[in-house]
Design brief:
With 193 residues, the protein is an alpha+beta fold. Helices cover 34% and strands 24% of the residues. It has helices at residues 3-14, 20-25, 36-46, 55-64, 97-100, 128-143, 157-162, and strands spanning 26-30, 69-74, 80-89, 111-119, 147-152, 166-170, 181-186. Strands 1-2-3-4-5-7-6 form a seven-stranded mixed β-sheet. Helix 3 (36-46) packs across helix 4 (55-64). The longest helix is centred in the last third of the chain and has 16 residues, at 128-143.
Length: 193
C-alpha cells in the first residue's frame, strides 16, 4: 500500500467512532447566522490579537459557507463551547487569503482549508477539540473531500498528528506574523496538485 494510502486508512480509523458522552453533552451542527457574535467572541478569547480573525471575517465566512462552520453547542446552556471552520477550494497549499477572503470559497472544491479550531477555556481538556475535528472529518469524508489542510504553531503539531494529520513542514502562511507548519489529512484519494 502506498504511503498516502496508509495515511488515508489511518485517518479514517482515527475518526471512525464518535465519543457518545460528548454527543450527549453537546450538539454538533452548522452555525446559525445569529451566532456570528458568539463565534467572534470565542475567536478573540482563543487566539492572540495578531492571530484572531476579525468580526467581519467571521461574519463573511458564516454568511457565505455556514455548512463548513461546525459548532459544539452546550446542550445545558444553549451557548457555543467551540467551533471549527473551513473553506473549500481546489488549491493544494495554504495561503493567508483564505482567512480574510471568503470569496475564495469554491463550492465544488475538493480540498478544505481549516481556518480555526476554537474551544473556550472552560471546555478544554475534555476531548471537545478532538471530537469537533473528527466530526468535521467524518462529514467531509462522506462528501468526498480529498484532503483537509490546516496550519498550526509547532507546539500543536503532535496534537494534530494524533488526529490523523501529517506535518508537511513550514507553511507559506505567515498569518499574524507567525511561522506556521502546514498539516494535511488525506480522506478520499490523492489530492489535486
Amino acid at each position: 500500500m502506498a504511503v498516502k494510502g496508509k495515511q488515508e486508512a489511518r485517518s479514517r480509523r482515527l475518526f471512525a467512532a464518535s465519543d457518545q458522552h460528548l454527543h450527549e453533552r453537546f450538539a454538533f451542527r452548522n452555525i446559525r447566522k445569529e451566532e456570528s457574535g458568539q463565534a467572534a467572541r470565542i475567536e478573540r478569547i482563543c487566539f492572540p490579537p495578531n492571530e484572531a480573525c476579525s468580526m467581519e471575517m467571521i461574519v463573511s465566512r458564516i454568511e457565505r459557507v455556514p455548512e463548513l462552520f461546525l459548532v459544539a453547542e452546550d446542550r445545558g446552556t444553549g451557548n457555543l463551547a467551540g467551533f471549527l471552520s473551513g473553506l473549500a477550494t481546489d488549491e493544494s497549499a495554504f495561503r493567508d487569503d483564505f482567512f480574510s477572503d471568503a470569496s475564495l470559497y469554491d463550492p465544488n472544491g475538493t480540498n478544505i482549508m481549516l481556518l480555526g479550531l476554537d474551544v473556550l477555556p472552560d471546555y478544554r481538556g475534555q476531548g471537545l477539540a478532538r471530537e469537533l475535528m473528527y466530526e468535521y472529518l467524518r462529514r467531509e469524508c462522506e462528501k468526498g473531500t480529498q484532503c483537509v489542510r490546516l496550519t498550526c504553531l509547532p507546539a500543536k503539531i503532535e496534537m494534530y498528528k494524533k488526529m490523523g494529520f501529517c506535518d508537511e513542514g513550514v507553511s507559506q502562511s505567515v498569518w499574524g506574523g507567525e511561522q506556521w507548519h502546514e498539516m494535511s489529512c488525506e480522506l478520499n484519494g490523492t489530492r489535486k496538485m
